[in-house]
């Protein structure tokens, strides 16, 4: 497959249309102190490595999935609740992007999930850098606000290669992957029965349907989206 550089406008058009346990130190278990004491203790509890990381704009590495560090070589991210939109965009370009198991923003559990799954934590919350049990190079603070700009920031920062066959290869709803062949109209109706309504106007167009192997969400029009991306690729060769 060919590696394709990204273009904000074209990529945003495709995505916009088709994308829709860790042990703590004893000090971490103490009751919450008064506000004045909390401010003093916060300064003393800052992770010195993390504190210096706040002053660095460029990613230093290595990434959690680095093969030399015991990873499998495949990029994996965990987007916190401030970046769930970015998670969907990453999935649209075939990148493994999970979200927290719980909607409650509990920082220790969030970091624990990233550690357990060997994922790099993406967030807009710089306060996460203060935790003493945060390991080096486990977190990245996303600087941009718009989802399309955030996507390009992550891809460029971590030098991710987006191949043509990765586009729309993941479920934007759950991060799962699709079955290896498209469904017929009859198969799609049966797969969606009971939890998803496929519009009659879609069923009448004899389109290809794709089924997520994890959450069983049915998708359609994926092929036309990929065709648009291929045309875009031809223009930039």
From TrEMBL:
Organism in which the protein naturally occurs: Opuntia streptacantha (Prickly pear cactus)
GO molecular function, one term: DNA-directed RNA polymerase activity
Superkingdom assignment: Eukaryota
EC numbers for this chain: 2.7.7.6
UniProt entry tagged with the keyword Nucleotidyltransferase: yes
A GO term from the CC aspect: DNA-directed RNA polymerase complex
Feature: compositional bias, Basic residues: 32-48
Record-given protein name: DNA-directed RNA polymerase
Keywords recorded for this protein, A-Z: DNA-directed RNA polymerase, Nucleotidyltransferase, Transcription, Transferase
